[in-house]
Amino acid sequence: MAVLLHRLGHKAYQQRKLVLGIWLFVLAALITCVSIFSGKLDDRFAVPGTESQRALDSLSKTLPEGSGAGAEIVFTAPKGHQVTEAPYAATIARTVTEAKKAPQVSEVVDPRASGAVSADRTTAIVQVQYRVQSAQVRASSVDAIEDAAKAAEKGGLKTSVGGSVYSSKGVHVGPSEIIGVAVALLVLVVTFGSLLAAGMALMPALIGVAVGLAGLLALAPAVSISSTAVTLALMLGLAVGIDYVLFILSRHRQQLARGTDPKESIALATGTAGSAVVFAGITVIIALAALSVIGIPFLTTMGLGAAGAVLIAVLAAITLVPAVAGFAGSRLTPKPGSRAARRAADAEGSIGRTTMGTRWTKWVIAKPLLTVLAAAGTLLTLALPATEMRLALPDNGSAPHTSSERKAYDTISDTFGPGFNGPLLVLAETKNGTASASAQAGAQVAQKLRTLKNVKAVLPPQPTSDPGQSVITVLPASGPDSVRTGRLVRDIRKAAPDIRESTGASVALTGTTAVNIDVSNRLSDSLLPFVTIVVGLSLLLLMIVFRSLVIPVKAAIGFLLSVGASLGLVVAVFQWGWLADTLDVPHSGPVVSFLPIILIGVLFGLAMDYEVFLVSGMREEWAHTRRARQSVIDGARHSVRVVTAAALIMFTVFAGFFPLDDPLIKPIAFALAVGVAVDAFAVRMTLVPAVLALAGRGAWWLPAWLNRILPDLDIEGTSLQKTPATDQKEPQPVS
Questions:
Q1: How many other β-carbons are positioned within 10 Å of the β-carbon of residue 644?
Q2: What H or E segment, with its residue span, contains residue 105?
């Protein structure tokens, strides 16, 4: 791999105008495709093969308005008044008339017809039904409903609009993300000691992100892509793109400071640091692509979209960076006597000054057992809340307090009960298919459902276009994300055989709440197998790279500690509500159901990234000196600074997405930012050197028979020392 990348670096340097031109042409072509063939993003949650999805698909044909999106206009009368008073009733009637004129609306139900008037008559709900899913509802339609609601306020009523038409708000690029990139640029300036080098590090990363995003959006007309998938791709593309460029460019400048020819230097950097970048990128891509095996389309597009963004970031790092370095030439060389030049000398060990990485590593391994116990104990303590983690998909109850949908959600919950926000739909079907038999069986089914625990109300059966079908709405006594509601779903499905035997009707549970519960259950069931695959993959890959048994086991345990600590903090903040007001978290409740799997997939690749960069230098020192303890210190001399900068960049990029109000993206951004910080500083730069110091010479042991059968990936580029380099002024040592 190293030799191939070395040649690629040479070619990209020589053909820099062509390489840059190809990237810019591809970007322009993709942007043109997006502008001409723009498609809508699709935020539907579907679970193929489940009872709830089959029933929902059936209803989409026989009762489209029952399976489509819905909006709710909530009216609240002034204090001391009731919505049934003549002026207010007339205002509500006018609103119903105006709402019927909104595009795509199939039906608007007056609260007097549906009975959606509170017992104290202070609140009423107008139900708005669509024949399409929320992803297909146009913004103009929602705007029309909101305008109709605002007009009602002139009549003295307080209004808010909610419902399933409000979902993820799509791609977000705002001030917080821009600040995150600005902080990343500042970190690059401090790391390189050069504004030119920092700018040239940022440019390939941004071009790669632009190509990745444009490519993903260009697929929207042909492939179902969610807005969350686009935002995650943007988040990951920025973070890994900047980091990968940093790794290669820092090695390049270190070699330039030694006097290496610029062309040969960037080729060597691409062959050595670029090998680690490719290795780390492949691990992230594999872990993210593995999300597709779970069988949830929404999660598949998220995984594949993010994997595509990481792939583009890797390609940009190993092609665009050498090309950009070619334009800069020797201008990237640190000036003699500058801080960057001293750092290069420090990393090479040619001067006696002790670096920050050396001081930290010496302190960590002074009492390695104490360090291991303290670090592992702290991480295990942080992970404890994860044992009580509950998973669910967010709804309008997770929206900001000031939003219309959150106000509507809270008003409905307080006035009608929390279950009104998460009704369950029971599809009853009879064999003989006559309308009268279906109606009779539906009534009997409804009566049976009323006897179940945690059922607040069961509405009369509603016929569909199929004479043998009827739909029964069940209102739970608990909210849609409550454990009790999940138990009710199980109880209804458990009672289905008895209901069929006594009424002659087969029943299937569906609706948004049931689908969301099925999504969360499938994700929960997939979590352990997914972790097993990822940990097993890390053991195999690191064993191949470092020819060791101790290092893979240590890396896997450290990875699990990082994931556990991150999930523990997510539970404490988002589920328990600790520091929720301080961090502006609008709602405490179950954790987003696909967050743990996304976190595991992303953090796995990043952990392997840091592991390779830190330990490869230590292994190289061990190969040269055979001094176990000193190899740990000398190997960390340069790596600690680069990994620190990389972790800070990733942390700020992920944290830049945390202020968003999106209930899906906010906890993911928090989990990734915390996970990167914990893994880089507590695990890789603290636990790793301490464990290696404890293991001593045993850290680098691998049975001879296993060493013979494992392939050699040559991540560290040792083969380059044996391969004559073209256009090299004189042989240069590889650090």
A1: 18
A2: strand 105-109
Q: What share of the chain is helix, strand, coil (3-state, %, to 5)?
A: 65, 10, 25
Q: How far apart are CA 693 and CA 682, in angstroms?
A: 16
Regions of the chain with pLDDT less than 50:
350-352, 723-735
The one-letter code for the residue type at 253 is R
What does the H/E/C string look like for 51-66?
HHHHHHHHHHHHCHHH
Q: Do residues 516 and 589 touch, judged by C-beta distance below 8 A?
A: no
Phi and psi torsions of 119, nearest 5°: -60, -35
Which candidate, 187, 196, 207, places its Cα nearest to that of 253?
196
SS3 564: helix
What pLDDT is recorded for position 360? 87
- Taking every pair of C-alpha atoms in the chain, what is the biggest distance, in angstroms? 94
In 3D space, the residue among 104, 328, 302, 102 whose CA is nearest the CA of residue 203 turns out to be: 328
CA angle (602 as vertex; 598, 604 as ends), nearest 5? 115
Strand 123-130, strand 105-109: pairing = antiparallel
Helix runs in 417-511, H state only: 435-450, 483-503
Half-sphere exposure of 146 (CA within 13 A, CB side): 14
Alpha carbon distance 471, 423 (integer Å): 12
CB atoms within 10 A of CB 438: 24
pLDDT value of residue 725: 42
Q: Look up residue 96 and give its two tokens.
A: 């119903």
Alpha carbon of 630 to those of 365, 627, 637: distances in Å?
Answer: 10, 6, 11
pLDDT at 727: 42
> Which secondary-structure segment (H or E) carries 458?
strand 455-458
Output the CA angle 368-372-377, nearest 5 degrees. Answer: 150
* Phi and psi, residue 152, nearest 5°: -70, -25
C-alpha–C-alpha distance, residues 401 and 125, integer Å:
20
3-state DSSP assignment of residue 72? strand
Residue with tokens 């680690």: 276
Per-residue b or e along 188-224, where b marks 16 or more CB atoms closer than 10 Å to that residue's CB: bbebbbbeebbebbbbbbbbbbbbbbbbbbbbbeeeb
Q: Does the predicted model carry a pTM greater than 0.85?
A: no
Sequence-separated (6 or more) residues with CB below 8 Å from residue 539: 552, 553, 556
Burial (CB < 10 A; 0-12, 13-18, 19+), residue 20, is: buried
Instruction: Give me the pLDDT at residue 34, please.
Output: 87
Closest CA to 339 of 185, 189, 186, 184: 189
